[in-house]
Recover the amino acids of this structure.
């Protein structure tokens, strides 16, 4: 398998929002889902997950509540809020635009300058 | 209710925090367990799975800390946490904490003291009703000076002013005599003053008492909103020319003299033999718009009754009578009032053109005492600067102490940084620790300051004889002073805590954990600053202490100086007649003196009694121009007298034997010569040497004074004799100034039946002070109403300004010097302690290689010896320069007095070395093996 890619600075929050948008998850579940969607191509530090979750909650983009996990254990589930949904949209748009621009720059041929 | 809901939400937050913590912990644990379970499902054994899950997760504590921060940690919570931690740290190191608090308390306390004094004198508003609207009305002269208004003008303004309400006047004061009271003894009050060498002549007990009395208009108390403590205060009716004479006592006098007996109200007191009714008492320490508490308050109208002869001055428009006060009416500004009063002044000018008038009137705010005039501001600024500097030095010393301790805490800080503590958070915690220390020091300093001030004021107040009045300085700390103290405490805390805190945070985590303490280059720059500080402090201390030793030794010499006359066996008896007549006729006065002298002479133990116009070393210095008779007087421009002046006094023939001044040649006056005031004179040796250096002065003649000379004071006479024969020469004495022998002195004959003097001198066979009581009873036998002050002549020395300055200067500078020494020792302690900490490793190596403890001690102390010796050298040089300036008040002590210089320097070095020895004991106890293992 190829080596995993390191996360770009500041993108973890976006990924968490996306993961949670697909349905409420607890912290471990968020990790699994991101790995699942990215087909395990991303390297995520487990320890940095929770500070990011707390930050997003502090910003009001996700809310949490205690519930029961699959093994009947208590776990804290995170859900996307309306504000979070909106934020996810804008961030995704920004990302795509940025990717376009950068791709354009990187793909420039000498004659096009 | 709002309070309760706030408390409730605070409680909820506190409880929620605990719950949040446990929730966070549960969440993270769940994560790890879930991950482990996945691994187990993959075939990994349970133990191994848990281990791997934990490793994969990373540091739990670190993650938790980041979560907390992400959530937005409550500032208040962190503050409380830091406070609790700070208190714990302070408790763990009681020695260090106590020393730091003491040093800072010194700096803060001194600052607070100076500020309180400054506040009491210059900033506090007068303790009257509505001080912001209190105005003073003054006459202006061309130069802009403020002068007093005359009484008729005052009345005019009072009756016509629309901008100022209730104009009242304070019209000076005088001393009145009463024989209705006996003087309250205050022997114990002199304890501190007496111990320091100050002795004040006390009023004769049982004789008549002199009291200070001020005159105010009838509406004065009403204007200032004063309330009586008993009876009533003045009304305008009391201030009318024919009204029955009334007087108000001050609360202080009521307490000390009458023990607050309410029956005093309504009783009669005779002042200058006029009967007054006491109508009331002011509250204690009531000061009105004055600067000191008087003993009695009287209406202006009664002043003429007391023999002051000012009935016509009250009606005279051109004589200034007093200061006028008033309140601005609502909505009126100061300039409005001044404009209106100037209009009134113009009206007066028009109505009375012949009266000497000045430019107009000025209205000035009387809100504050304004004791500090423009010349004193530089002194005030300098003092505040000096104490601020003292505080800075204290801070620097405590900072160096902290640095020494910070080295020990490096490990702890390294661990905390490794655990994920944010650097800013750590800085906050360290600063809170230092601020806590500073606030505690502030509390100690504040109580020290107020206690010291109270003591000073009480001591000074009790040393002043009660008949002079009382000083009432408001030195109790109020909210402003408290706020000032808190403010500088906080500043101090940040100031001395910042450097060590920043220092501590710069630690590299790795080296801190390994406790690597032997870095050589790291602190060199710091140590230069510290060295400089030590040098400066040692030098400053030395200057203060050496000069204080000089002053104290010098003033001690003053007490022992031989003035040339026998001060130990002569009593000075002074008749304190307040005003010239005091109710006694001229004939009665002469009779009085004669009777007194007879009565006193008959007391066993009295050798002789004499009369003179002044007593030696008691002030009242008088000078007269003198020249050789028939010689050409030195010309001066415009007839100015350019002859040399000589001191003089009028004496009876037995003056010299009473005072023990030997007659060197010739003789004293005969009784005949004295009675007729013949043109003869006795001169001092120095005078003889001055006019006739190689000849016999006896028989020569002097011209004394001039015909048209003006007396220095009304009622005094000036000697004039066109030709006086020198009949005797006496030994030189110090009768004019304590620090030098009289340059020239003349003794003139006194006729006891033609001129009355108020000074008697009594020679005793035993010690003078033992005979005071007997002399007192003798005086009372002659006339029980006489106000008399008795004092042995040797006590007058301590009343001399030169002595006072010398002694007080010595005391003050030694206090400051000792305080400074304490601080300097702290600095040395910190410096040596720090270097020991730094060099533990090196010391271990040396000891392992065979160095003995004394050698190690020498090594450590050598480092601090250099700045100390340099400071000592500079200090001695500076002291020598300063002491030369002081030579005038050293009374003959050599300004380079070896005992003072050497003694103080050695003492300082010894104390400083001791301060350095204390922490270096640790160095000597270093176990080489332990030190070496500190890799």
């Amino acid at each position: 398998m190829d080596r995993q890619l390191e996360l770009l600075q500041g993108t973890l929050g976006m990924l968490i929002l996306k993961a949670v948008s697909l349905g409420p998850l607890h912290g471990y579940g968020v990790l699994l889902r991101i790995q699942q969607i990215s087909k395990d191509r991303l390297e995520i530090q487990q320890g940095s997950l929770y500070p990011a979750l707390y930050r997003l909650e502090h910003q009001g983009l996700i809310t949490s509540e205690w519930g029961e996990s699959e093994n009947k254990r208590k776990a804290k589930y995170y859900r996307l809020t309306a504000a979070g949904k909106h934020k996810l949209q804008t961030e995704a748009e920004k990302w795509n635009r940025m990717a376009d621009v950068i791709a354009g720059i990187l793909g420039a041929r000498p004659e096009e300058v | 209710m709002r309070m309760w809901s706030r408390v409730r939400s605070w409680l909820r937050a506190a409880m929620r925090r605990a719950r949040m913590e446990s929730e966070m912990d549960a969440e993270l644990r769940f994560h790890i367990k879930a991950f482990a379970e996945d691994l187990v499902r993959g075939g990994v054994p349970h133990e191994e799975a848990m281990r791997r899950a934990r490793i994969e997760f990373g540091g739990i504590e670190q993650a938790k800390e980041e979560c907390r921060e992400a959530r937005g940690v409550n500032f208040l919570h962190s503050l409380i946490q830091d406070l609790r931690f700070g208190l714990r740290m302070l408790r763990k190191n009681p020695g260090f904490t106590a020393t730091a608090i003491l040093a800072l308390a010194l700096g803060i306390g001194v600052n607070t003291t100076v500020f309180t004094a400054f506040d009491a004198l210059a900033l506090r508003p007068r303790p009257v009703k509505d001080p912001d609207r209190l105005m003073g009305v003054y006459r202006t002269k061309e130069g802009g000076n403020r002068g007093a208004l005359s009484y008729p003008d005052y009345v005019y303004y009072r009756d016509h002013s629309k901008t100022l309400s209730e104009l009242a006047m304070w019209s000076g004061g005088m001393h009145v005599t009463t024989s209705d009271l006996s003087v309250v003894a205050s022997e114990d009050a002199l304890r501190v003053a007496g111990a320091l060498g100050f002795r004040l002549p006390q009023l004769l007990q049982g004789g008549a008492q002199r009291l200070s009395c001020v005159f105010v208009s009838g509406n004065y108390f009403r204007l200032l909103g004063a309330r009586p403590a008993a009876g009533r205060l003045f009304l305008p009716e009391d201030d009318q020319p024919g009204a029955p004479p009334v007087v108000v006592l001050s609360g202080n006098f009521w307490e000390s003299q009458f023990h607050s007996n309410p029956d005093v109200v309504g009783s009669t007191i005779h002042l200058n033999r006029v009967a007054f009714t006491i109508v009331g008492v002011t509250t204690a320490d009531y000061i009105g718009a004055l600067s000191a508490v008087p003993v009695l308050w009287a209406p202006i109208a009664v002043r003429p009754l007391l023999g002051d002869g000012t009935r016509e001055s009250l009606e005279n428009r051109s004589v200034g009578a007093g200061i006028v006060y008033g309140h601005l009416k609502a909505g009126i500004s100061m300039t409005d009032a001044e404009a209106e009063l100037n209009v009134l002044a113009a009206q007066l000018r028009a109505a009375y053109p012949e009266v000497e008038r000045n430019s107009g009137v000025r209205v000035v705010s009387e809100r504050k005492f304004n004791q500090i005039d423009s010349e004193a501001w530089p002194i005030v600024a300098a003092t505040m600067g000096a104490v601020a500097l003292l505080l800075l030095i204290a801070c620097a010393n405590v900072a160096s102490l902290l640095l020494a301790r910070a080295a020990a805490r490096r490990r702890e800080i390294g661990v905390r940084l490794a655990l994920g503590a944010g650097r800013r958070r750590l800085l906050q915690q360290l600063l809170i620790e230092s601020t806590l220390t500073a606030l505690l020091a502030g509390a100690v300093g504040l109580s020290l300051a107020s206690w010291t001030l109270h003591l000073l004021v009480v001591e000074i107040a009790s040393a002043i004889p009660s008949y002079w009045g009382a000083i009432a300085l408001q030195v109790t700390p109020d909210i402003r002073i408290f706020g000032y103290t808190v403010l500088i405490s906080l500043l101090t805390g940040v100031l001395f805590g910042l450097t060590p805190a920043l220092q501590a945070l710069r630690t590299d985590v790795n080296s801190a954990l390994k406790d690597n303490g032997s870095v050589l280059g790291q602190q060199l720059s710091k140590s230069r600053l510290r060295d400089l500080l030590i040098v400066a402090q040692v030098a400053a201390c030395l200057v203060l202490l050496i000069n204080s030793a000089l002053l104290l030794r010098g003033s001690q010499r003053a007490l022992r100086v031989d003035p040339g006359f026998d001060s130990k066996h002569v009593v000075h008896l002074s008749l304190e007649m307040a005003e010239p007549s005091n109710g006694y006729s001229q004939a009665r006065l002469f009779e009085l003196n004669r009777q007194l002298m007879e009565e006193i002479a008959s007391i066993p133990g009295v050798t002789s009694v004499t009369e003179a116009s002044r007593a030696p070393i008691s002030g009242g210095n008088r000078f007269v121009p003198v020249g050789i008779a028939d010689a050409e007087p030195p010309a001066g421009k415009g007839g100015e007298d350019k002859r040399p002046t000589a001191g003089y006094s009028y004496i009876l023939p037995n003056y010299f034997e009473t005072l023990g001044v030997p007659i060197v040649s010739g003789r004293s006056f005969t009784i005949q010569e004295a009675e007729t005031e013949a043109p003869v004179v006795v001169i001092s040796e120095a005078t003889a040497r001055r006019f006739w250096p190689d000849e016999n002065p006896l028989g020569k003649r002097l011209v004394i004074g001039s015909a048209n000379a003006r007396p220095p004071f009304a009622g005094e006479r000036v000697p004039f004799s066109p030709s006086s024969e020198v009949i005797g020469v006496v030994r030189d004495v110090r009768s004019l100034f304590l620090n030098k022998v009289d340059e020239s002195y003349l003794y003139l004959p006194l006729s006891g039946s033609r001129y009355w003097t108020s000074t008697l001198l009594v020679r005793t066979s035993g010690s003078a002070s033992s005979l005071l009581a007997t002399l007192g009873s003798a005086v009372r036998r002659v006339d029980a109403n006489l106000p008399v002050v008795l004092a042995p002549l040797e006590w007058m020395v301590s009343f001399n300004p030169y002595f006072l300055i010398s002694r007080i200067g010595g005391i003050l500078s030694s206090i400051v010097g000792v305080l400074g020494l304490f601080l300097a020792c702290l600095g040395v302690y910190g410096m040596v302690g720090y270097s020991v900490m730094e060099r533990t490793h090196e010391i271990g190596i040396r000891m392992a290689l065979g160095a003995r403890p004394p050698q190690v001690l020498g090594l450590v102390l050598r480092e601090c010896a250099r700045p100390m010796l340099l400071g000592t050298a500079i200090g001695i040089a500076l002291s020598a320069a300063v002491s030369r300036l002081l030579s005038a008040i050293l009374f003959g002590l050599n300004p380079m007095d070896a005992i003072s210089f050497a003694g103080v320097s050695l003492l300082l070095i010894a104390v400083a070395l001791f301060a350095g020895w204390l922490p270096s004991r640790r160095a000597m106890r270093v176990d080489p093996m332990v030190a070496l293992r500190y890799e």
Q: What stands out?
A: The two ends of chain A are 38 Å apart (CA to CA). The first strand of chain A starts at residue 5 and ends at 6. Chain A has a mean pLDDT of 86. Chain A has one domain: 12-112.
